[in-house]
Design a protein that fits this description.
45% strand; globular; four-stranded mixed sheet; mainly beta; 76 residues
């Protein structure tokens, strides 16, 4: 798996525009993009619909069905 992109499933899907296909759909996945040098700092994120999230996850070498880790809250 790629260690600079982490894909997580959202606890509650939301209706928004997918960052990949630009369609307004339910967003099920959040892709966190980490800094290449230190791999700790988040430099960006993507909101992904179910189809795009599962495709990106499988493209990184994951199993069919998508990730299982759920994002519950973000604290900044």
């Amino acid at each position: 798996m790629n260690d600079t992109i982490e894909i997580k499933i959202l606890r509650y899907p939301k209706l928004a525009k997918c960052s990949s296909c630009s369609r307004v759909r339910d967003i099920y996945y959040k892709a966190l993009i980490y800094d290449v040098d230190d791999k700790k700092s988040v430099v960006g994120d993507l909101d992904l619909c179910k189809v795009c999230g599962e495709n990106l996850y499988r493209g990184q070498g994951g199993e069919k069905g998508g990730p299982t880790e759920i994002v519950k809250t973000f604290n900044f």
